[in-house]
Specification:
Layout lengths: L9 E5 L4 H10 L5 E6 L2 H13 L3 E6 L5 H14 L4 E4 L17 H19 L3 H7 L2 E6 L12 H21 L4 E8 L5 H4 L11 H13 L4 E4 L1 H12 L2 H13 L11
Helix pairs in contact: 1-2, 1-8, 4-6
Length: about 270
Amino acid sequence: MAGRRDNPTHVMITGASSGIGRALALRYAAPGRLLSLIGRDADRLDAVAAACRALGAEIAAAQIDVTDHATLEPWIESRDAAHPVDMVIAAAGLGGNRALAARGGENGAQARDLMSVNTLGVLNTVTPLQPRMARRGAGHVVIVGSIQGGIGLPQSPVYSASKAALKIYADATRRLLRPQGVTVTLVLPGFVDTPMSQSLTTPRPWLWTPERAADRIARDVARGARISAFPWPLRLAVALGAIAPAPVVDRILTYSLRHTGLAPDDLPR
């Protein structure tokens, strides 16, 4: 029998080997719960799986790159066929230093990697389950984006765009699937103290621990929230940036870029 959104029986999580995905796996690990975990780093994924088993959960884990839809899709479908997935959390993503742009412009290969993982990786994760959940009349899709998707930062244009796409996608998918009984929650975190964000040399204001972020996400998901955004000061700053005159925002963000302390050679190419 399928579980409720506040007590799902089968939870699938991508990006489970690190960061927010890892914290969510541990947050949901409990006796009587099945976790299907996907990650790119086999050793770290095995460690997370072992920790979740120790907390009483049943675990299935697979080392799969979310951009590899030919491998990912059949695995997801097989897991759903074995036991219907109540909740899928698309948490895999690239960011941190790998998302920074060189002052003269972004590298094409780097840009394609960001879009492939952050945007297409989410689509590869949730599209196999959407029609299955719709047929059952139940299910919860959780998409982990970023507060940065609400504003185009000059430090990382493609990263901003990859996360902005998820906002529109989540909104539209929620409207599409809600009549079928499927809930969609978009997660918009600010800075979280993950290995990815630790690679940044720039300030990380209002930094949260992964555990705090996972607790907040789980609470918002349990109540069926459309959006789980945190922390509020950063959310407010981005919201103000979205409605302020473009010349003012351009001036502020260009100034911030000049004072990050990053030189062109510091940035990935």
